[in-house]
Amino acid sequence: xxxxxxxxxxxxxxxxxSIVLLPFISVVKIASxxxxxxxxxxxxxxxxxxxxxxxxxxxxxxxxxxxxxFLTPVVNRTHDINLIIKxxxxxxxxxxxxxxxxxxxxxxxxQLSIVTYAGQFKQYAGEQFKFLEQRDLPREQKLVRSQLIQxxxxxxxxxxxxxxxxxxxxxxxxxxDGVSDLAIKRSEYRSIMQRDGFQSLIEMxxxxxxxxxxxx
Length: 216
What we know:
Elements: H1 3-34, H2 41-57, H3 59-78, H4 81-95, H5 99-120, E1 128-137, E2 141-149, E3 155-165, E4 168-176, E5 179-180, H6 181-196, H7 198-213
Antiparallel strand pairs: 1-2, 2-3, 3-4, 4-5
Helix pairs in contact: 2-3, 3-5, 4-5, 4-6, 5-7, 6-7
C-alpha cells in the first residue's frame, strides 16, 4: 500500500482501534478509581470492607470463632473503639466512671463490635462494595460513602465517618441507609446507664454478645 493510501485510511484505523480498546480503557479507569490512596480515609474503609468480603467468602470454613479471630485485628486497626464508646456515653456519664470501668466498657464494646461483624458477614453470594465518594466534614473529619451491592441487586448504603488520630484515619460512626449507628446506641446505652446503672449496661452488652455468637 502506498504512503498516501495509508495516510488516507489512518483515521478509520484509529477509530477501529479505539472501538476495540475503549471497553478495556474504561475498565482500567473504573478499576483505578476504586483503588484507595494509601493513608486516606477511604483506604481504611476499603481495608474493612475487603476483609468483610473475605470473611464472607471463607465464612463456612472459618466458622464463627474463626471469623472472630480473623476480624479482630481488622476492627482494631480500622475503628476508634475508645472514642466511639466515649461519644456514645457522653462526657458526663464517662467521667462518672473509674478507670476499671473504662477498661471494662471498652473491652466489652470492642468484643460486641467484632462478634456483630462475624455474625453478620458470614456467607458470600457475590456481594460487592462500591465506593461512591470521599468528602470533608466539619471538625477535620471525613465522610466515605459506599454501597453494598447484594446478590439479588439490592443496595444497602454504608456511609462512614472517620477522624484522624495517631497519623491514621479511624472509623467513629457508620450510617446504614442514612441511619446513624452511633445515634441508636447513644440513645439506648445512655438510657440504661441513667436508669439502671453501669453494671446493667455491661450485662446488656454481654447478652448481645451471646446472641451474636448464636447466629450460626
